[in-house]
Amino acid sequence: MKIQKQKLKKIFEKTTKNNLIHESVLLIENSNGDFSYHNGYGGKKTDTPFLLASITKLFTSTCILILREQGKLSLDDKIAKYFQEDTLRDLHVYKGQEYSMDLTLSNLLFHTSGLPDVIEEGSSKAKKRVIDKDRKIGIDEIIIKTKQLKPHFAPDNGKKAHYANINFDILGKVIEIVTDSTLEDVYKQYIYDPLGLKNTYLPIDENDFVPFVYYKDTSLYRPKMVRSIRASGGCISTARDLMIFIKAFFGGRLFNKAVFRGLDINNKLQATMSPIHYGAGYMRIPLGGLATLFMGKGELLGHSGSTGSFAFYHPVSDLFFVGDVNQIANPALPVRLAMRLAMSTGS
Question: What is the pLDDT of residues 36-70, one digit of tens each?
Fold first, then answer.
């Protein structure tokens, strides 16, 4: 293991030499915990809180899968079951046909709805506004803005998948409706408390700490935005807590992991997110394809976040990789780091 740790250290140090990275943390463990490696850069440590961004989708997926296991919802449920018709009308109109009332929870969980993403695909100024200004945006406004954009395809259209945050924003609202509770309380009941997570939370008011995130060399503080995107990207945690969670997610501590065999569909996401595929609420990254010059083995399972966060499991080596590079200007950085780490240990 000593040689392996030297490889891991070399990869981490090479990554943190990137001029975009001002701080970073990495924690690696195997399933039973008898192998562990951690490293930090720029003062960041395993107990330093950071924004999970889209890794939050794993928490939302967990709640959906638990509620499904409890018989409180079905992935075949149409979202029209949970929303007023007026709210949904015109949300998904593709080639003149209305699909809004046909969208299912499965479409959202697997990103097969075809819905566009307001921030990534709105006007070129939309993303700039997020960077330049902190503002609250509720689910109703997100739905209204999505209606102004064109869907990419009809739901369940063959092998197509398109990553869009609105899918999980809606799932978060469904969780609240089904449980008659707030999302933060459901996370606490289904995830934080059972796993003993002490430093993981959804910020709900000004008193809750929200970490800064970097855009190139600028440190951004966006608490209103973070509190707005709870189900799709608002969770805050530490590398230590995140390791406990990702092990539980794939290890069966939160729900019956046999669900992954029953929900084994995974479709390739849009070209801008290559080589990422999407499964039942989590990313799947094949390591044996062109992106790695066919030199990798197996796949990475988990999620990354646009702010530089990552949480992946590599079954071939039985290693979990979690951490953060805290940089919003290049969302590919955490994925590349996880791929390099997995390739160095998968032989």
Answer: 999 999 999 999 999 999 999 999 999 999 999 99
**DSSP label of 22:** S
DSSP, collapsed to helix, strand or coil, labels residue 198 as coil
**CA separation for the pair 155, 288 (Å, rounded):** 29
Q: What whole-number distance in Å separates Cα of residue 204 and Cα of residue 228?
A: 9
CA-CA distance, 319 to 311, in Å (whole number)? 11
Q: What are phi and psi of 257, to 5 degrees?
A: -70, -10
Structure-token pair, residue 191: 């995830």
* Tens digit of each residue's pLDDT (9 = 90 or more) over 76-111: 999 999 999 999 999 999 999 999 999 999 999 999
Go through the domains of the chain in sequence order and give each one's CATH number: 2-345 (3.40.710.10)
Q: Give 342's contacts (C-beta < 8 A, 6+ positions apart).
A: 287, 296, 298, 300, 312, 314, 316, 317, 319, 321
Task: Give the C-alpha separation, 266 to 281, whole Å.
Answer: 10
CA distance 205 to 227: 8
Element of type H or E holding 246: helix 239-251
Q: Is the pLDDT of residue 162 over 60?
A: yes
What pLDDT band is residue 125 in, cutting at 50, 70 and 90?
Answer: very low
Q: What is the DSSP string of 115-183?
A: ---HHHHS-HHHHHHHHH------HHHHHHHHHTS--SS-TT-TT-----HHHHHHHHHHHHHHHTS-H
Q: What is the pTM of this model?
A: 0.96
Helix (H, G, I), strand (E, B) or coil at 96: coil
Mean pLDDT, the chain, rounded, equals 93
Strands (DSSP E) found in the chain = 24-30, 36-41, 50-51, 93-94, 97-98, 213-215, 218-220, 236-237, 267-268, 277-278, 283-286, 299-304, 309-314, 319-324
For residue 152, what are its two tokens?
């990419």
Residue 291 has pLDDT above 60, yes or no: no
Rounded CA-CA distance 157/57 in Å is 23
Rounded to whole angstroms, the maximal C-alpha distance in the chain is: 61
